[in-house]
């Protein structure tokens, strides 16, 4: 069974093309190795999917070929992911006021300094 199909069918990715793109970008690892979309899976493999600064760690329990409902998909994997960090601890998103134009060099340096903290 292909990695991208399995990731899509157990609802770790919204679409199969997003699952394949995540594999190509190096965001998916199988047993610690970087996975290509067509790599085969077997029960017992550990799959790590990185998404938005958070890593999901799941163990393959059962292989399914088609997308199924959430309760059935939950039976096909064992979720070993660490809990998500609270929103207060994640880095804030910097948004500029609409119409403010491009940041000046000084503002850009200030933003870079804030992001490093």
From TrEMBL:
Extent of Basic and acidic residues compositional bias: 107-117
Residue ranges of every copy of the RNA-binding S4 domain listed in the record: 1-62
Keywords linked to the UniProt accession: DNA-binding, RNA-binding
GO BP annotations listed: cellular response to heat
SMART domains according to UniProt: S4
InterPro entries noted in UniProt: HSP15 (IPR025708), S4_RNA-bd (IPR002942), S4_RNA-bd_sf (IPR036986)
Pfam families: S4
Region span, Disordered: 76-117
SUPFAM superfamilies for the chain: Alpha-L RNA-binding motif
MF annotations from Gene Ontology: DNA binding; ribosomal large subunit binding; single-stranded RNA binding
Keyword Lipid metabolism: no
Family that this chain belongs to: Belongs to the HSP15 family.
This protein's name: RNA-binding protein
Organism phylogeny: Bacteria, Bacillati, Actinomycetota, Actinomycetes, Kitasatosporales
